[in-house]
Design goal:
- The chain folds into two domains: 188 residues, Jelly Rolls; 50 residues, no CATH class.
- Helices cover 33% and strands 29% of the residues.
- It has a five-stranded antiparallel beta sheet with strand order 1-2-9-4-7. The chain has a three-stranded antiparallel beta sheet with strand order 3-10-11. The chain has a three-stranded antiparallel beta sheet with strand order 6-5-8, with no helix packed on it.
- A hairpin with a 4-residue loop joins strand 10 and strand 11.
- Helix 1 runs antiparallel to helix 2 and helix 6 packs antiparallel against helix 7.
- The structure holds fe (ii) ion.
- Fe (ii) ion (FE2) binds next to loops.
Length: 245
């Protein structure tokens, strides 16, 4: 059945996932479906119009980690989501990883995608060495994909002075709460959180750089609270850092 709009895509993609395909089949069939959806951007007019003209639609967008992430659909079973990303030309978008597999298609204008591999031993949570392994240009209708965690590190950029839009289908996350930004100059892996908790996480990171008892006390109190694992981990990293001093 042809795919001309988001509803048709989501229905057919859900039917595909329900067959529990292995990854190669999911990737091949999912890319073909997404390729159809992004071959024509008529269906996306409504999204752009509503973002500009419909205050409720705009307000219902939640503040995710990436500021250019437009949420389009979440499956009720939480097994996939569909988002649009809007890329501004001449803007630096960091090299990053993902908490889930993702299939990505160019919808409006071209984007450049560079993929990277980790080439360090991953023994230090704050450091990473990445090496570029591919550099491709995607035109509307073309697709690419990412794997979860360090197997799917990439960077996307708009080309030719034109704002670009891509459509991303993500699976259920195997890691929640943060992604990494990688800096190949400083060889760092920075954990980046959604805006609503980012200041708290920065404060936890800052406490790890203050070798004083009160700072340790705050971290230990936080560590004994019922927070999600990724917050407790950040407290542990800061306490470890203090212990190193
Ligand atoms: Fe990405």
């Amino acid at each position: 059945m042809a795919i001309n709009n988001l509803d048709q895509f989501c229905q057919q993609f859900k039917a595909l996932l329900d067959q529990k395909p292995d990854w190669p089949e999911l990737l091949a069939k999912g890319r073909a479906m997404l390729g159809e959806l992004v071959s024509n951007h008529d269906w996306f007019k409504d999204t752009l119009s509503r973002l500009v003209l419909d205050q409720v639609f705009l307000k219902n967008q939640w503040q995710s980690i990436d500021p250019n992430d437009i949420q389009l659909y979440f499956s009720p079973d939480k097994d996939f989501s569909v988002r649009a990303f809007i890329w501004e030309p001449g803007t630096y978008y960091p090299i990053h990883d993902h908490g889930a597999w993702g299939i990505v298609g160019a919808l409006i204008n071209q984007v450049r995608e560079r993929k990277f591999a980790r080439v360090d031993d991953m023994s230090d949570v704050n450091h990473a060495k990445v090496k570029q392994i591919s550099d491709a240009t995607l035109s509307p209708g073309e697709t690419t994909y990412v794997l979860p965690l360090h197997d799917g590190i990439h960077q996307m950029l708009a080309l030719k002075n034109q704002v670009a839009v891509t459509i991303h289908v993500y699976g259920a996350p195997v890691r929640k709460g943060f992604i990494h930004y990688y800096d190949p100059h400083f060889n760092t892996a920075i954990r980046v959180y959604r805006p609503s908790i980012n200041k708290k996480m920065l404060a936890i990171k800052a406490l790890g750089s203050i070798p004083e008892d009160w700072a340790k006390e705050v971290l230990l109190t936080a560590l004994n609270s019922a927070e999600p694992d990724y917050i407790l981990d950040e407290c542990r990293y800061s306490l470890d850092k203090m212990g190193d001093k």
